[in-house]
Amino acid sequence: MENGNYGGQGQQQHPPHYPPYQHPYPYPQPQAYPYGYQQYPPPPQQAPHAYPPPPPSTAPPAAPYLAPSPSFPGYSPAPAPPQQFHSGPLQPYPPPPAHAYPPPQPRPSPYGGHGYEPYPSPYPSASPSPALSPSSSFHQQQHHHGSAPEPPSPAPSTPSYPIEDVLATMRLSDRYDYAPPTPVTASSPSAPPPSTPFSGGGSSHGGGMQVVPYGSPAAAGGGSQHGGGMQVVPYGASGSVRPSLKVVLLHGSLDIWVHDARSLPNKDMFSKSVADLLGPRITGALGSKMSSASMTSDPYVTIQVSYATVARTYVVSNNENPVWEQHFLVPVGHEAAEVQFVVKDSDVFGAQIIGVVAIPAEKLLSGDKIEGVYPILEPNGKQCAPGAVLRLSIQFIPVARLTTYHHGVIAGPDCHGVPYTYFPLRRGMKVKLYQDAHVPDGCLPDIWLDHGLRYQHGQCWRDIYDAICQARKLIYIVGWSVFHTIQLVRDGAQVPSLGDLLKMKSQEGVRVLLLVWDDPTSRSVLGFKMDGFMGTRDEETRRFFKHSSVQVLLCPRSAGKRHSWVKQQETGTIFTHHQKTVIVDADAGHYRRKIIAFVGGLDLCGGRYDTPWHPLFRTLQTVHKEDYYNPNFATLDARGPREPWHDLHSKIDGPAAYDVLQNFQERWLKASKRHGIKKLKRSYDDALLSIERIPDIININDAAYFSDNDPETWHVQVFRSIDSNSAKGFPKDPRETIRKNLVCGKNVLIDMSIHTAYVHAIRSAQHFIYIENQYFIGSSFNWDSNKDLGANNLIPIEIALKIANKIRANERFSAYIVIPMWPEGNPTGAATQRILFWQNKTMQMMYETIYRALKEVGLDDTYEPQDYLNFFCLGNREVTDSSSTSNASNTANNPQEQARKNRRFMVYVHSKGMIVDDEYVIIGSANINQRSMEGIRDTEIAMGAYQPQYTWANKVSAPRGQIYGYRMSLWAEHIGAIEEDFNHPESLECMRRVRHLGEENWKQFIADEVTEMRGHLMKYPVSVDRKGKVKPLPGCPTFPDLGGNICGSFLAIQENLTI
Predict the structure, then answer these.
(1) How far apart are CA 467 and CA 465, in angstroms?
(2) Catalytic residue among 578, 614, 646, 715
(3) Exposure of 793 in the CB half-sphere (CA atoms within 13 A)
(4) Does residue 344 carry a catalytic annotation?
(5) Residue of 538, 585, 723, 867 marked active site
(6) Which residues pair with 1031 in a beta bridge?
(7) Is 144 a catalytic residue?
(8) Closest by Cα among 286, 276, 269 to 345
(9) Structural contact between residues 30 and 735, judged by C-beta atoms closer than 8 angstroms
(10) Are 552 and 545 in contact (CB under 8 A)?
């Protein structure tokens, strides 16, 4: 959401895991098992009537197993227990007979899960075996583990979609078809809350593998406070006698097959009764589900690890014996007691839990595959129906054995990029990296690269202006917001505004299309204009181009017609289209044209134009005279201070630009499709140019781009967060879904490749990570409370675990994270305070993870967590001069007057980028939070890029290419100077030096005396002790001038607004 952080080492010695890379990339693409060893072939196909998984790749075999870096602790399997828990190979079976059941009652809540020893044969008789009584389990060997005192049962958090959850959990007429379980009390063993699935139906097809980027919320919403620090959790239903389960860390990947289920109960008897009562005409209007004569359960399976749903099968309609044959590769970094397979029924009135199969996490640590047929149990330990079973397999592969990550982000010349993503790696590109909208000549110091090259600081908006002016065929713009009044060039030249320029190009015959988010709070009804809460001015932009040949399509964020009304309203109101791209044709030489694209965080709207100086007052009467912007104050007062704006952007020239174009085409076709009465309005679906029919434009395969031998060539890959409700062309056949590397949600297909790219890069990092991002919230499943919040992206925990593994290997690693001082808006407001509260939880979890690693190796007295990880923000302060607005003699004590008096304000960090080891960069529109990473919330786009001649694997030393120059340029902007230590960002000297400079800048920022700040980088104003505890900074618990708790507050507000 836009509106609403001294032991000398000298020259680094290269560790032994950086020899010149001599092996091919460990995973040819596409390969179903992207690990550098062959211990676990895919299970054979058991059901001939199900779709098979994709055929194995014909690519050459993976490289021999490579000795892992010391930063990946040697993997030693846990001792094998005396009892084996693996069933034998499962044989094909005939279709199971139908069963008749009395109408079951919707399940009570909360719901606990149980794990059992698999059946000795693929499918048993309908009667449960005596060996599977509630008092037995396949974990009975665990009784020797000590048990911690039982914590109170967590209270379920507020559901995201209250109507659906009420319908899913309500008891109708207090009928029970099964004996109700003993109520869970504070003294009873606790059970994790049930998952709230995405609403809607799904596909009845199965087959193939899904690489699942991360977990979606197990119970979104909330505010419930769950106790932290649990190491042992009780296991089993209330009243039963069971050993406790140990909480263990699962860091690596889960290789999961969900094959099929048998003899599920009919959970749709109530729906059928309602359908009979309403009649066929009404039920037909409600959907095919209620109008079906053969109505029975619509089962699907969610896989949950520690409050997070990490994978989900398709929905199989009206089938008590569903076959999925779905394969998942799930990255995990969760502290968990068990992995739960929750079988659910998708229903028009909401989802009902049928039952659970649970596998203890401790059993997975051995690395062995656990497979078999398991009874599906209710919370009381009984089977949900006679003979109800689920056939599955699961294997945990620790990160130490995932050789893909052992040799850096770019493992060698045969690198295939980030695997299992929608768009492939494109080779032979040109890339230009930008900081801020404009960098004046001479603004930043010279930075020298290898081969005697000097880094060229980009001028983003000037380049966009020139690209639009030079376009001859097409100009496609995507934005969260686009202002027609914006001046892209502000160096004194007389140039038209963006809107006038686009009209001129359209009149020249260029196809000009704008795809802008339709803010639901911005409306023009019967001449009455509402600006909208977000200030996007989308209606104003539409009106400006109304009578021109420029076509503007205002695109609402839609949940899809098959979702519930509540889900549609939430998605349309809370979430946005957040991509920011400009796509144009450009001169390719020889009288040909090519496609280039700009991708990043900069919208072409108000308040974004800035330079590395980030002035507060000095430009109010010049370059910002018509572009004053500061939404943090209650009233608009152009006397300042303005809110300075820092951002990252990029230009892509080459094949990957055509992938950005494809994204635009998919989104335009989806948004232009008319439904109902809207079909009478003007159609936009024929506005797109078919570039393959324009001979002047070279296609993606014809271009002659740079070779890998050219030192300045780039390889680029495009990533997205988007779902099938926002992009046309996603496949309907599940086999094609797998081939496209999409993820299955309920009734929706999801591209989550941005998150995949971040996790891949972090796990592969060997030296340092540098992040700039507008938000930093995630991995709530490992927080000390609010574990069920649903902020389940893996990025924060992956960074913390990367550092922890390096500490155990006695290697240096540094992570620098730059965020805004507070999310844009009133810092005392409920939404901002809740976001800061979640941000503080994220920081706390990361620092405590690092402290535990230091404690484990006995270095906690030598180093502290901030020797490895630091958060920063940006701010500026200006002394009064004659060209700035004079201080008025206003004695008011409001926040703006205080900021004006003290001549200071934060520099708003709107960036969305990451640099890893000076060899790999990600830049895009995605924030590090759930709404940007999940794929079903905000739509996002990003690019990941590297220069193959400037990698650790290629040079066997620190690369000094364009990415190195970009980082040094950013640090020069933020710090105001370049120092020798900055060449070794992983070193302890550099980390402590940057932290010291940040602390000094903060002292200058809050001092009573107003002095000009040389640098803008400030240590984020919280205190972190040697044990990783994050607390308010002594003497400064609130933000200067504006107030608001720096560590946030737990104020009541809708959760999906804040994660």
Answers:
(1) 5
(2) 578
(3) 31
(4) no
(5) 585
(6) 1023
(7) no
(8) 269
(9) no
(10) yes
Rounded to the nearest 5 percent, the helix, strand and coil shares of the chain are 20, 20, 55
CA atoms within 13 A on the CB side of 1040: 22
Secondary structure in 3-state letters for 401-449 = HCHHHCCCCCCCCCCCCCCCCCCCCEEEEEEEEEECCCCCCCCCCCCEC
Distance, in Å, from the CA atom of 973 to the CA atom of 612, rounded to the nearest integer, reads: 6
Reply yes or no on whether 917 is catalytic: yes
Q: Region of 1041 please: left (phi>0), alpha (psi -120 to 50) or beta.
A: left
d(CA 846, CA 1029): 10
Q: Hunting for tokens 């906690």 — which residue is that? A: 860
pLDDT along the chain (1059 residues), means of 10: 43 36 33 31 38 39 37 44 34 35 35 39 40 33 38 35 31 30 32 35 46 48 36 39 78 96 83 54 48 73 93 90 93 96 84 94 95 95 94 96 88 84 94 97 94 94 97 94 92 90 96 85 56 64 87 75 50 74 94 96 94 95 90 83 96 96 94 59 72 90 67 94 88 77 85 96 97 96 92 96 97 98 93 95 97 97 97 96 53 85 96 97 96 90 95 84 97 96 97 98 96 96 96 94 94 75
Helix (H, G, I), strand (E, B) or coil at 700: coil
Going by the DSSP 8-state scheme, the letter that residue 383 receives in this structure is B
Q: In Å, how far are 275, 748, 982, 990 from 979, measured between CA atoms?
A: 74, 50, 6, 9
Q: One of 298, 603, 647, 917 is an active-site residue; which one? A: 917
Identity at 443, one-letter amino acid code: C
Query: Please, which residues have CB within 8 angstroms of residue 830's CB and are 6 or more apart in sequence?
Result: 1051, 1052, 1053
Catalytic residue of the set 580, 670, 767, 841: 580
**Residues present in the chain in total:** 1059
CA distance 880 to 898: 15
Distance of alpha carbon 429 from alpha carbon 655, whole angstroms: 7
* Contact residues for 687 (Cβ-Cβ < 8 A; gap 6+): 511, 513, 551, 668, 672
CA–CA gap between residue 731 and residue 738 (Å, rounded): 9
Q: What is the pLDDT of residue 674?
A: 61
Distance separating the N- and C-terminal Cα atoms of the chain: 10
Distant-in-sequence, close-in-space partners of 387: CB < 8 Å, separation ≥ 6: 99, 123, 124, 125, 126, 127, 128, 262, 263
Cβ-Cβ contacts under 8 Å for 58 (sequence gap 6 or more): none
Residue 489: both structure tokens together: 């060039």
Residues 6+ positions from 140 with CB-CB distance below 8 Å = 243
Tokens representing 65 are 């197993």
Residue type, 778: G
Q: What angle do CA 423, 911, 616 make, to 5 degrees?
A: 155
Q: Are strands 245-246 and 426-435 parallel, antiparallel or unpaired?
A: unpaired
Catalytically annotated residue among 746, 802, 910, 984:
910
Do residues 137 and 242 touch, judged by C-beta distance below 8 A?
yes
CA atoms within 13 A on the CB side of 941: 32
The verdict on whether 578 is a catalytic residue reads yes
CA 531 to chain CA centroid, nearest Å: 30
Q: What are phi and psi of 605, to 5 degrees?
A: -145, -175
d(CA 162, CA 821): 34
Ranges of beta strands (E only) in 657-767 are 714-723, 743-745, 748-752
User: What pairs with residue 1024 in β-bridges?
Assistant: 1030
Are 190 and 154 spatial neighbours (Cβ–Cβ below 8 Å)? Answer: yes
**Which of 913, 894, 855, 35 has its CA nearest to residue 405?**
35
Q: Is 740 a catalytic residue?
A: no
Residue for token pair 């001792």 = 79
SS (H, E, C) 251-297: EEEEEEEEEEEECCCCCCHHHHHHHHHHCHHHHHHHCHHHHCCCCCC
Rounded to whole angstroms, the Cα distance separating 572 from 517 reads 11
Q: Reply yes or no on whether 955 is catalytic.
A: no
Return the pLDDT at 731: 86
